Every structure is written in structure tokens, then in C-alpha cells.
Amino acid sequence: MSWSQAELVAAAYGAVFVFVLVYVAIIAAKLVRLQRETAELLELARDRGKAELRDVAPVEAAGEA
Amino acid sequence: MGLALALALIVAPEDADQGISQRIFYIHVPIALTAYFCFGLGAWKALLLLWRGDERYDLESYVAIHQGTIFGALTLITGSIWARASWDVWWTWSSNQLVLFLVLFLFYCAYFMLRFSLEEGPRRARSSAVYALFGVVLIPVSFLAIRLAEDFIHPTVFTREGPQMTGTMFATFCVSWAAVTLLAYVLYRVELAGKRLDADLRELREVLQ
Question: Chain A contact for B85, CB < 8 A?
Fold first, then answer.
């Protein structure tokens, strides 16, 4: 297959563009995963905080009585 | 990057000898130099790890070598396209610089095989650092191969008399080099921040569960 010089120049610049685009897409996918994990951990920390408050509240009520 | 592309594809004059295909030079050479720099940075961080024992250098060395491998792959791809345009072949084994760059690239590809075959921890960090340091020897050999072997297939643009190109061409090259270096730096910082955040989240999950 014969390639013209202009096509080869376009292919070289296009290859770099595609590589950078794929790299950015991978990083973006990773950021979405990290965001989801952060939300999960935040939920876990909130649940734990609520559970600790529930454990402390009956003891305080018993002390007042 | 936009300015570099405009200068390389529109403003820079056409080369009298190679014609339009010489425009690949403005992307190929800065990418190759950035790949050398990333491999060098990875080796430097590896040395700091072995010297100071601070584990944060392990991740920095890994990310730099990862960047170097990406830019190395791009160097081989753009170089191959330029070879097709200039010499009518996609690859030639008779050019020492090409073969040595391929050896350097494959050497650092094997770095990942070594790294991911070991358990995470100080032993993996030290082994990876030693391997990264061995590879740094190949960088000046690869870079100077064309001069050492007097290989006339691959063109030498930068000689002792200075750059063998016009002022506009040299300015275009400098802008392209700055743009590619900036791109590599941004990608390095983003990847490093992502990896650190990933490690912190893993630790936080262990604490919470």
C-alpha cells in the first residue's frame, strides 16, 4: 500500500493524539472509580458514627435516671 | 500544544531535502528526549529510594518509568512512520540508534514484569529501584549511539556547530519540546496524585472495616 508523505505526517501526529486521548480516558475512568470508592467510605464512616452514637445514648440515659 | 502544532504544521518552512515528512521531526524528537528524561528521572528517584530509604520515591520512580515507556512507545511509532516516509521502510535493523532505543524500551517494559511479579513491600521497592538504576546506563549509550557508531542512516541534526536548521525551524522545535515536556509533567503529576489517592483510600478502607 502506498502512502503519501502528507498522510504519513497526519498518521504520526494522529498516533500521538490518540495515545494521549486514551491515556486521559484511562485516568478519567480511574478518577470515577476513586470518586465512587470515596463515597462508599464516607457512607461507611457515617454509618459507623451513627452506630457509635446509638451505643453511647442508652448509657447516658441510664446514668441520668 | 496548540501553538506547537500550529508552528510545526503551518508556520515552519518545508525542508528542502525531506519535504513535508520532515514535520514529523517536531513531534518525534521532543517525544524521544522526553522519554529519555522520564527514564532518567525514574532512575534518579530509584537512587533516592536506595539512598534515603523513603518509600514515596518508589511510587515516583514507578510513575516516571511508566511515563517513559508511554513516550518510548510513541517515539518508536512516530519514528517508524518517519522511516517509512524517508527511507521507504517501517524499520531497519542496520541503524544502531533505532535498535538501541528498542533495547532501552524493552528493558523498561521488563521493569513492569519484575515489579508485578513481586509482593508489594520494601523488597519489591528495592528490587525495582536496582533494576531502574541498571537501565540508566543504556540512556547515554542510546542517545550517543549515532555518534559512537558513525551511523549515517539516522540523521544528526544537532552537531558541534549547532542545530543544522533555520531559525524558524529551531524555534518550532523548542516550542514543541517545551509543549511535550509540559504535557509529560502534567501527566506525571496527575498519575502520581491518582496512585497516592488510591493507596490512601485502600489504607482508609482497612482502618474502617
Answer: yes
Q: What is the ipTM of this complex?
A: 0.80
- Which residue of A5, A22, A38, A48 is the best one to mutate when testing the B interface, meaning the one whose CB has the most B CBs within 10 A? A5
pLDDT beyond 90 at B145: no
- C-alpha pair distances (Å), B209 with each of A33, A40, A44, A54, B197: 19, 12, 8, 19, 18
Which residue of chain A comes nearest to B74, CA vs CA? Answer: A16
Residue B31: the pLDDT is: 94
pLDDT at position A65 is: 57
pLDDT at B153: 56
- Point out the residue among A16, A41, A45 whose CB comes nearest to the CB of B78: A16
Kindly report the average pLDDT of chain B as a whole number: 86
pLDDT at B148: 64
- Please give the model's pTM, rounded to 2 decimal places: 0.84
